[in-house]
């Protein structure tokens, strides 16, 4: 079930053993600077993409962990309130804020960030000026590792995200 698989990804393991939590980011080789689709089981309807970005001399990005995008996740079918509950309940994420992505490059030096689009859509630039531009819309869930730069280029239809951070650990330095 899609919801269960996404739950596994957004759950932060108390013991900081992320091998199971980050199962879908494993791969035989990394495609730097390319938003690539992650192969999944046939029973998963959500399309999953990952993006590895190296330090570009201006922003650190994250060479160890990719940014992950879950398109049309099961969470996006819920109301904003249900989305908030799904993020927080049993997943060790902070209570989410509701807003957009900043329109300037920024990153979180030690924290992961979880973004769930609950309304509208936007164009985001991921990884800095030489990074990747992508569209996100209602139902898309984005997991951004520490150091990974991102910004919003434009938005439409009342674009709103729920954003949250881990309540413990997961600094990206492990």
From TrEMBL:
Signal peptide: none annotated. Gene3D superfamilies: Jelly Rolls (2.60.120.10). Residues 105-154 form the Cupin type-2 domain. SUPFAM superfamilies: RmlC-like cupins (SSF51182). Pfam families: Cupin_2. PANTHER family: BLR7373 PROTEIN, CUPIN TYPE-1 DOMAIN-CONTAINING PROTEIN. This is Cupin type-2 domain-containing protein. The lineage of its organism: Eukaryota, Sar, Stramenopiles, Ochrophyta, Bacillariophyta.
């Amino acid at each position: 079930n899609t919801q269960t698989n996404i739950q596994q990804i957004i759950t932060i393991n108390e013991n900081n053993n992320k091998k199971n939590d980050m199962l879908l980011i494993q791969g035989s080789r990394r495609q730097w600077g390319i938003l690539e689709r992650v192969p999944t089981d046939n029973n998963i309807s959500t399309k999953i993409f990952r993006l590895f970005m190296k330090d570009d001399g201006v922003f650190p990005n994250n060479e160890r962990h990719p940014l992950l995008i879950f398109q049309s996740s099961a969470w996006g079918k819920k109301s904003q309130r249900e989305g908030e509950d799904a993020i927080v309940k049993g997943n060790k994420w902070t209570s989410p804020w509701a807003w957009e992505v900043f329109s300037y490059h920024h990153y979180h030096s030690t924290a992961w960030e979880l973004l769930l689009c609950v309304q509208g859509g936007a164009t985001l630039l991921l990884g800095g000026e030489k990074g990747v531009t992508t569209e996100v819309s209602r139902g898309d869930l984005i997991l951004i590792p520490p150091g990974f730069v991102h910004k919003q280029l434009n938005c439409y239809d009342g674009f709103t995200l729920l954003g949250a951070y881990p309540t413990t650990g997961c600094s990206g330095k492990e």
